[in-house]
Structures are given as C-alpha cells and as structure tokens.
Amino acid sequence: MNIAAIYHRPESEFAYLYSNDTMRIRLQTAKEDVKLAALISGDHYLFGEKWYLNKENMGKGLSTAYHDYWEIEVSSEFRRLSYAFYIEDFEGNAYFYCDQGIFPYEEEFMKQDSSYFRMPYFHEIDRFKAPEWVHKTVWYQIFPERFNNGDPSNDPEGSLPWGSKKPDREDFFGGDLQGIVDKLDYLEELGITGLYLCPIFTSPSNHKYDTVDYWEVDPHFGDKALFKELVDKAHRKGIRVMLDAVFNHLGASSHQWQDVLQNGSQSKYADWFHIHSFPVHYDPVPDSEFGENINYDTFSFVPNMPKLNTANPEVQEYLLEIATYWVKEFDIDGWRLDVANEVDHHFWKKFHERVLAEKADLYILGEIWHSSQSWLQGDEFHAVMNYAYTDSIKAFFLDSEVTAANMLDGMNHQQALYRDQTNEVNFNLLDSHDTPRMLTLCEGDKEVMKSAFVFMFLQKGTPCIYYGTEVGLAGGMDPDCRRCMPWEDQDLELLDFFQQLIHLRKKYADVLSFGLLRWSAEKDRVITFQRSFLGKTLRCSFNETSEAQTIEKLGAPLFMQLTTDNEDYILEPHGFVVELV
Questions:
Q1: Residue 447 is among the residues annotated as catalytic for this protein
Q2: How many domains does the chain have?
Q3: CA 256/CA 254 separation, integer angstroms
Q4: Which of 20, 489, 544, 572 has the most CB atoms at less than 10 Å from its CB?
Q5: How would you write the pLDDT of the chain (581 residues) with one tens digit per residue?
C-alpha cells in the first residue's frame, strides 16, 4: 500500500459540519490501492468505553487519476467527535491512521486518546452555510451594453446601429437597463431564475470594469429608479438579481485617482492605492507586451485601472458601505466579485460579515479561475466561477483526444478541493464575457454544443447561460464574445432546446445537487452516470465517439438527442439520453 498517498486534514474540506449536527469526513488514498476504509469515532470524554474498537465502513466516492476519496457522514449525540481511520489493503494488511501518523492496526496504538483527530465541538456559527436557493437557480449572464437597447435617448455619443458590426474594444451600441426590463418576459419564458449583470456603475467604458462611481448607475444604462424597477419586476417573476463589483481597482477617471494625480503625496487618497513613488506616472514602452513602465500597482498592466489598497481602513469602509448600500436600497440577491483573488483575505472576511448581516441569504461569488480553498472556508465566499471544473467538460466535448477518464479526473479533482456546500452552489458556465462563445468553439456544430450544455446542466452546482448562446450567438475571444444580442434573427430550434434543458434542471434540481453519484466510463468517449436522491434516480448517457453506441435501457427517457428509443438506446455520435429509472 502506498502509505505516502494517505491524507486527511481536520476542519477542512476533509472534515466539516454539513448540517448543524452531522459531519462529513473524507479520506484520500492512492487509486485502487485500498480494499477497505472505515471510520473509528466516538466522544473524547467516553474513551474509557473503548469505542475505538468499533469501525464503520466508508464509501468510495470520487476518484482521480491518482487518488480515491472515501467518504462518510456521522453525527454525535454530544456534538463533538474524536476519530481515526482503519485502512486495509488487498493483501490483508491493516493500518490505524490518526492525528499522530500511521501505525499497524493494533490496540496498543489505538488506546491513546490524545492521538485522535478531533472536532472538539459542533459550532453552528462556524459551519459553512450557502444560500439554499442557489442550487435551484439557473443563471443568465448579461453584458448590459449588448443585450438590448430599450431607450435610445441615453445612448452614448457615437453609438453604432444595433448589431451593425462585430464589436471592437471601444464600440458602443446602446444596450441599457430598460432593454433588460423590456425582455423580462422573454427570460421568464426561457425559464431563467437568476440574472447576473456585468457592472452597471458609472464608467467611461462599454464593459464598466473601470468603475469611477459605485454609488450611481451609469447614465447610459439608466438610473437608480430604473434599476429598482428591474429588481422588483424580476423578483415578482421569481428571478434573483446579482450585481458585479470591481473592488480590486478603480477607474483612472475616479475623483480619488484624479486627486492623487493633482496633489501627489499630499492627496488624502495617496494611501488608497499602491503607489511606489511620486508623482505617479506611466511611460509607454514601444513594442512591449505590457505597454508601460508604471510606478503604481494596477489590474494586470492596465494604467487606467489603479489597484486599491484594501488594507487601508478608509478604503475598506468605503467599499463595505457600497456593498451594503445596494443590498439595503435595492434588495439585490448576490455580489459577483471581479478579480477576487487579488484582494486580501482580511477584507473579504469583513465583506462577508457586513453583507450577510444585511441579507442572510445573499450569494457571494468570487471570480477565481484556479484552486480556491483559501476563499471557501465559510467566512469569505460561497462559491467561485467554476472555470477549472467546466474546462474539463469543454475539453472532453471539444477535443476528440480527451477521454472520459481524463474529464472525470479533472472534474473530480476540483470537487475534492471543496466542501459539498460549495460544490452544490459553485457557478458552472461554458462561456462568458471573458471567453470565446461555445458555438464558435464547437465550430458551429450545434449538436456538440448541446451535448456539452446538457452534461454541464446535469452536474452539481448552479448553471449559467451567457446571453445569446440560447439563440445561436457566436463569437471569438473578447471583444468578439460581446456581440449584440440578435432579436430578429434567432435560432428558434436552439431556443426550444434550452427551454427544455432549463425545465429539466429545475424539475430535478435536488437530485442533481444532492444525489449520490456513480460514474461509468467503459469506453474512452462514452460516459454514463447516475444520481439518486430520495427515491429518484436519473441516469445520463453520452456518446462522443464517431460511431453509434448501444446503451442498455433502464427507464423512461426525459430528454435525448440523436438517440433511438428501442429495447435499448442507440446513441449516434454526439447523442445523449437522460432517463428516470
């Protein structure tokens, strides 16, 4: 047995409170190296009763290319737990794994009460809590400048006719909040239950990620009264609203940065930013990839996005007042936090406390593209933009060389990083304002794109559609992925497909979020999985080979593509079937 691969860490994603009186415990071992894993557990103060001689078998859950993860849920009458692990290999060797290390499974090593892992007390206040409504939500991301022009009177000067060209970085087309209000019926009919809006605050750009005034709606989008109308009408339709905030940096035309430019080190905002010397300056560097020599910190190397010093108490209070203002005054349901990984943890802990004091079930979503355990301990974010997870899905459906095993390795690796509470509400997406659109990545093949979206919608987490994807909007990398929403020329067959998919997701949200998962990848490019919860089981099969595949029929088909329903299912290439079994 590969003892070096055995791993557990208390009070982490390996051991955490799931409900107020139950713990979920996870153990890592080398892949296919362990025959049996079991939990030894009891109350520290009752150690004399020799509960350490009892074992409770763990179930093998997720597996990656190198590891298996064993899982169990336990409770305690006294709301505290001491525990260790019994591990047996295929040759009959047994080991005792505890807080002090790994030993032979013998009573002399087990009867030292100080050697056990512990959850000293089940503190409800410390339990990771995610908003219950999120796992039931189907999101729709809107880039406001490109969704719909509802009020031409507020168009920026020089705005182009709607959809008249592919967008360049500086183009305006006149999209606004009135345009979103006007299309709420469309979104309701589509089945959307959550709106994620890219920034709406005052800014000179079309994307608004260089905010200059967080207290106001950009006048080219409308005003606060119109935004309030949008939120109220959305709520009446059962649609939540999440705003996008950039608390990592300000736009260069903000009054704070302009004061620094004018007054230098004497500016009352001089410590609001990370400035290395005065006066602040940036010098163009011809033919440089980064473009400038800058004596202050910025987002990336963009000189008009100076980075905020969020360790400064004045900056903290300024941003926290903004964050709570839009919750109090407009009843928003979530904050999506841009460049979240570049802001200090100290600030995000304060943010978490302040906004949840205002609205206990507010959803806090961080934009982080990499492993994010540090932000997901229960006192900062509920979830992250789950790019690392969905990239594995995209790779499988877009690259014929990627096997089902490859995909599962990547997906399961990401799931094993986090508590189940996070996995249940992580933000799953296949395209966005920062990525090429799926139809373009699929080279126009709608059947491939539909298969990928169905697969993503059937995973744990909360799924999102980027505006226009549902009607066949294409686009390459930013800024091409930010084309105007087509309202006249739409792919209605694709729209109907997404309506059905959203209906399926919403109907079986509990099964897909909480269900026991069993994967099967018997062929390189054929995958089947089941999720079971409270007496309901969904089986989902996908064929990404170049030939038809036969799948044993187990139940009634709920949703399928390129599939013949006979005594067995015949799945053509890019075919899938979702059954209720």
A1: no
A2: 3
A3: 5
A4: 544
A5: 999 999 999 999 999 999 999 999 999 999 999 999 999 999 999 999 999 999 999 999 999 999 999 999 999 999 999 999 999 999 999 999 999 999 999 999 999 999 999 999 999 999 999 999 999 999 999 999 999 999 999 999 999 999 999 999 999 999 999 999 999 999 999 999 999 999 999 999 999 999 999 999 999 999 999 999 999 999 999 999 999 999 999 999 999 999 999 999 999 999 999 999 999 988 876 666 555 688 999 999 899 999 999 999 999 999 999 999 999 999 999 999 999 999 999 999 999 999 999 999 999 999 999 999 999 999 999 999 999 999 999 999 999 999 999 999 999 999 999 999 999 999 999 999 999 999 999 999 999 999 999 999 999 999 999 999 999 999 999 999 999 999 999 999 999 999 999 999 999 999 999 999 999 887 899 999 999 999 999 999 999 999 999 999 999 999 999 999 999 999 999 999 999 99
What is the H or E stretch that residue 427 is in? strand 427-428
215 and 122 in a single domain? The answer is no
Catalytic-labelled residue, pool 68, 210, 367, 470: 367
519: domain range? 515-580
Task: Give domain status of residue 444, yes or no.
Answer: yes
Catalytic residue list contains 126: no
Which one of 96, 126, 156 terminates a domain?
126
Residues 6+ apart with CB under 8 A from 47: 82, 113
Query: What are the angstrom distances between the C-alpha of 580 and each of 182, 247, 425, 456, 491?
Result: 37, 45, 24, 18, 29
> Which one of 151, 338, 424, 544 is the catalytic residue?
338
Residue 527 bridge partners (DSSP): 542
3-state SS, residue 46 = helix
| 18 and 65 part of one domain | yes
- DSSP secondary structure, 235-302, as one string: HHTT-EEEEEE--SB--TTSHHHHHHHHHGGGSTTGGGB-BSSSS--EEE-TT-SS-EEESB-BSTT-
Residue whose entry in the numeric block shows the structure tokens 């609001």: 272
